[in-house]
Design brief:
The chain is an all-alpha fold. It has one domain. Helix content is 71%, strand content 0%. The chain is built from four helices and no strands. The longest helix is centred in the middle third of the chain and has 29 residues. The N and C termini lie far apart (65 Å).
């Protein structure tokens, strides 16, 4: 029997499961400005997968890289989820973000 496909499927499932909380924590602590890190990790992983001879390892590294690239979009979606109140907003980071046009800061804030 050949288990390569099953192993790749399990690793894909685990990789997506790992990236989900990473995206949530990244948005909470750093906002969306960390998208460049996701881009570098994704491109580096996909580039590395091109040079790995072992099919199983190459596929896993490629899936990791694709998940990092997908995480860029999820990072911006997570920001919208926070704005809708579905996830908590980091109070320390919120004070450092620029105010929207027309919004003023009240005394005591």
């Amino acid at each position: 029997m050949h288990f390569t496909g099953i192993i790749i499927a399990i690793c894909t499932f685990l990789t997506i499961g790992i990236w989900h909380p990473i995206v949530i924590k990244t948005e909470y602590y750093w906002g969306t400005r960390a998208w460049v890190v996701y881009l570098v990790i994704g491109l580096a992983s996909i580039g590395a997968a091109l040079f790995i001879e072992n099919t199983l390892i190459s596929a896993i590294v490629g899936v990791f890289g694709a998940s990092a690239l997908w995480g860029i979009g999820e990072l911006f979606h997570q920001k919208k989820r926070v704005e809708k109140g579905w996830f908590p907003k980091n109070p320390r980071r919120a004070s450092k973000e620029p105010k929207a046009q027309g919004e003023t800061q009240r005394d005591g804030e």
